[in-house]
Design goal:
Strand content: under 5%
Oligomer: single chain
Number of strands: 0
Number of domains: 1
Distance between the termini: 19 Å
Shape: flat
Radius of gyration: 16 Å
């Protein structure tokens, strides 16, 4: 799998999650609150992005200076690693952030931004938007 495939898959994932949570904005807060209440799900939701991010960083990290696509894949992997470590190490802060998500309409702007990022990543992945 090459770096553009990772970029495309990340874009599909981001766009599909964004569409789901734009369509049902209240479900995001319910899912997140249920995830932080259950310790097993909380740890899994930290370990999965951590492992996936580490795989991406280790796979494309040594060659990130060769192409911009590899650099983009490393950035995606580093974001996943940071996300996983935050959820694993800062559990109290993560719970506090989730508890502040009480407004059911609040996810519209972040999810709209996530949809745009997902579409851009998909277009980069298929080569419509060249990155050099």
């Amino acid at each position: 799998m090459d770096a553009l495939s990772v970029t495309f898959i990340t874009g599909v994932f981001a766009a599909s999650c964004a569409i789901k949570f734009i369509h049902e904005p209240g479900s995001l807060t319910e899912i997140m609150k249920a995830a932080v209440k259950n310790p097993a799900i909380s740890v899994l939701s930290a370990i999965l992005p951590l492992i996936l991010g580490l795989i991406i960083v280790v796979s494309f990290g040594p060659s990130f200076m060769l192409t911009r696509a590899d650099a983009l894949a490393v950035i995606i992997g580093a974001f996943l690693v940071a996300n996983g470590l935050f959820r694993l190490w800062a559990v109290k802060m993560w719970r506090a952030l989730v508890d502040k998500m009480s407004d059911k309409k609040a996810p519209h702007f972040p999810m709209s931004l996530m949809l745009i990022v997902g579409i851009v990543l998909m277009l980069i992945g298929v080569g419509v938007i060249p990155i050099g």
